[in-house]
Every structure is written in structure tokens, then in C-alpha cells.
Design goal:
Blueprint (H helix, E strand, L loop, with lengths): L13 E5 L5 E6 H6 L4 E9 L5 E6 L10 E2 L2 E4 L6 H13 L7 E9 L4 E10 L11 E7 L1 H7 L7 H17 L5 H9 L4 E3 L2 E7 L3 H15 L3 H4 E5 L3 E6 L9 H13 L10 H5 L3 E8 L2 H12 L2 E2 L10 E2 L7 E6 L10 E6 L5 H10 L3 E4 L6 E5 L5 E5 L6
Parallel strand pairs: 3-8, 14-17, 18-21
Antiparallel strand pairs: 1-2, 3-6, 4-5, 4-9, 7-8, 10-11, 11-13, 12-13, 14-18, 15-16, 19-20, 20-21
Helix pairs in contact: 4-8, 6-8
């Protein structure tokens, strides 16, 4: 490690000291914070250029922590009274020497070692122009592809908190594309007001007008950032904005969708909730049309053509379901029959409702003259019929794992 030749930078800067829940409990000069291992806040920004290459650098000898070591992130401490987002933008623009940086928060973890402890908020950002790194902070820099970076890291003396952040980032990236089980998806978001339905997270945000609902949609897209197009879908009504999250590439809920749901719940001016009353509950339901068939492969092309439907991503087999590419109509799936069944209808609706709404929906259907034909598979589904025997199923995600 290079010896200090100048006084450490920013030793007298006042920082917030925080408790184990990241609540501010005091303030102290930066030098004391570091010397006494007081818990505080930091930001880490993975900066990339237009080609996706990662900005890497070597810290200057006068840095108060980890001088002259390599780092794969830009960033630093969060100032007194400053938010993580404000600090991320400030640190990125200062160290890179550019303006117009808009860091996107990914996750936060507590970095802890024998000498240091700080909450670490990890961001990513793309620099819009060539960088002009701050000479007081950056002794050397380069843009490397991830493959080049992974090859270089074993030979570098890298800041330990940056290495931990990099390791966690790779884990986060892997979990972000991994489908989540039905129980885990439902449990992760129910407390936030979202509901899990048919491989989708769904919520309703009340609004006082169509213009307010549109403003909710704009804010939701901003929060989702570069993931909006691949995960977020918004439907607008005069009294609410309906938000849905699903990986378009996998037609399923992934770890990234759970993260976006948490971020949307925290960022929207009105916290998303499932709603109160019959109208709000119905806004969260999804409807499927089921076709019972002896030879699914022979009839599937007909329904695909007549409806103008398409395959779900990764599910284009001869018996797989079909979906509306515009997202307007209900999905169509095919139920295998083992014998002709002329005494019953062969097309029925599946109405997927939030699991905690199912009992009320069934009770209302029975009160309206319906009959309960079969509850053996509950809580996955209940089979009901009208007075003439036409059937519909009330379904939930439960009982399927």
C-alpha cells in the first residue's frame, strides 16, 4: 500500500451515525467515525459507458479509507442530512467529472469488518459523455468489459467493501432473473398491498382523476427505470392506476419483479394496496378461458389464428396456453379430456382472484343462484355452475406447489 504523502481528504467532514436499523442516532467528524468504527452510510455506483463497459479506477494515496487500492465502483459517504439517492448522484458526478448522471438504486447491505461498518447502497448508472475523473479521488482509470474486469480482479489489490459489493451485485443479478415460487412471491408482496395472480404481481393505486392516474404511471416508469419495458405494465382508469409486474422474457415473476414491487410501494405518493370493496377487488382479478379438448394439438392453431393470439415467451409447445399480444383479452389454455363429454360445456372461464378474495367471490356466486360442483382441488380452484349447468372456476395460486 502506498504511504500517505498528503493529509487525508475530508477528515473533518461531519457524518450521520446510524443504528442497526439505519436510523440516525448522532453525528461525528469523518476521522472519528472511521477511527472508532461508528456505523454510517455509503453509496456505491457501478458506472458504465454507452457500450456497457465498467468504469474502474485506483484511489489516490490521500484517501482516508483504503488509499491507493483499486475499486470497481465510484461513490463515498452519505453526507449529514443527505439521502442515499442524493449522495449517489453527487458522488458519481464528482468522481466522474460529468453532469446528468441518474443512478438507479439496486439494493442495500450492511458492510462490516473488524475496522469498519457502514450501510452500503448499491446503484448502477450510465455516463452520457466521456469522463473527466476528479484528480483528488482518482489516480488511474479505465473502462473494462465485465470479462476483462473478472480477469483483472485476482491480480489487483481491491478495496474490500467494493469486492463485497461486487460479489453481492453478481448474486443480485442472478436472483433477478430467477423465477420465484408462488408461495414466496405471494408472501413477499402481500404486506405491500400487491397480490400474486397467474405468474403476475398486481396492485391498484387509487387516483382522483385520469390525469392523476397517468401521473402515477409516469412515476412508476421512472422508478422502474431501464426495467420498465421488460417488467411493468400499466392500465389507467379515471379512479385508479392498475400496475402489473412480470418478466416479459420469462412470462413469470422473478426476483427483479419483487424488488420493483418494493421500490414502487416505497416511491409512489399513495402506497399501493389491494383496495377495499368489490370494485377494487375485481380490478385485481385475471380471467382465463379454458377449452376442454381430446386433441389439443389439433385445435390450438385454430384458436391462435381466430383470436390473433400468440405463444407465451418460452412456451410455444403444441399444448401450451395462448395469450393476447396486446394484453387486452384473457389467456386461453387447454384442458386434456380422456373421453368425449357431450353432457357438459367444453369451454369455461377461469377467474383467478387474490387468494384472500376467493371465499367472498364464491359466496357471492352461490347467492346469485350458482351451484358448487366440486371443491376437491381447493384452494387451487372451485368448480361452480349456473342454473343451466354452464361452468366457471374460481382459482387462486394456492394449492399448486
Amino acid at each position: 500500500m502506498t504511504e500517505h504523502t498528503e493529509a487525508p481528504l475530508n477528515a473533518d467532514e461531519i457524518l450521520d451515525v446510524v443504528d442497526a436499523e439505519d436510523h440516525v442516532v448522532g453525528r461525528a467528524p469523518r476521522a472519528r467515525v472511521m477511527a472508532e468504527r461508528l456505523r454510517h452510510r455509503c453509496v456505491f455506483i457501478l458506472a458504465t459507458d454507452a457500450d456497457g463497459r465498467v468504469f474502474v479506477h485506483r484511489r489516490t494515496p490521500q484517501k482516508i479509507v483504503f488509499p491507493s487500492l483499486y475499486d470497481v465502483f465510484v461513490g463515498g459517504v452519505v453526507g449529514t442530512g443527505e439521502s442515499y439517492d442524493e449522495a449517489a448522484k453527487r458522488e458519481a458526478e464528482e468522481e466522474l467529472g460529468v453532469v446528468g448522471i441518474e443512478p438507479e438504486h439496486l439494493f442495500t447491505f450492511l458492510y462490516s469488518s473488524a475496522d469498519h461498518e457502514w450501510f452500503s447502497a448499491v446503484y448502477r448508472a450510465t455516463t452520457p459523455v466521456e469522463v473527466a475523473p476528479q484528480p483528488e479521488e482518482v489516480a488511474w482509470h479505465a473502462f473494462l468489459t465485465e470479462a476483462e474486469l473478472e480477469a483483472a480482479l485476482p491480480g489487483w489489490d481491491v478495496v474490500p467493501d467494493g469486492l463485497e459489493a461486487w460479489r453481492r451485485l453478481k448474486e443480485w443479478q442472478a436472483s433477478a432473473v430467477r423465477p420465484v415460487s408462488r408461495p414466496d412471491a405471494s408472501a413477499a408482496v402481500s404486506g405491500l398491498g400487491w397480490r400474486y395472480l397467474l405468474g403476475t404481481l398486481r396492485t391498484a393505486v387509487p387516483a382522483g382523476s385520469l390525469a392523476q392516474a397517468a401521473a402515477v404511471a409516469v412515476r412508476a416508469a421512472e422508478v422502474c427505470g431501464r426495467d420498465a419495458d421488460g417488467h411493468l405494465r400499466v392500465e389507467l382508469r379515471h379512479d385508479r392506476a392498475l400496475l402489473s409486474l412480470q418478466s416479459a422474457a420469462q412470462a413469470d415473476v422473478t426476483g427483479r419483479d419483487l424488488d420493483l414491487a418494493r421500490r414502487l410501494s416505497a416511491a409512489l405518493p399513495t402506497r399501493p394496496h389491494a383496495g377495499e370493496g368489490d370494485d377494487a377487488a375485481r380490478s385485481l382479478q385475471l380471467v382465463e378461458l379454458a377449452v376442454d379438448a381430446l386433441d389439443i394439438a389439433s385445435i390450438r392453431p385454430f384458436w391462435k389464428a381466430v383470436l390473433g393470439y400468440t405463444d407465451e415467451p418460452g412456451r410455444g409447445g403444441p399444448t401450451d396456453a395462448l395469450v393476447d399480444p396486446l394484453g387486452h383479452g384473457p389467456a386461453v389454455w387447454f384442458q386434456q379430456m380422456d373421453a368425449p363429454r357431450p353432457q357438459r360445456n367444453r369451454i369455461h372461464f377461469d377467474v383467478c382472484v387474490p387468494h384472500d378474495e376467493a371465499p367472498d367471490r364464491i359466496a357471492a356466486t352461490l347467492a346469485a343462484g350458482g351451484r358448487l360442483l366440486d371443491a376437491e382441488a381447493a384452494p387451487a380452484f372451485w368448480v361452480l355452475a349456473d342454473a343451466e349447468g354452464n361452468e366457471a372456476c374460481v382459482t387462486t395460486w394456492q394449492g399448486r406447489d
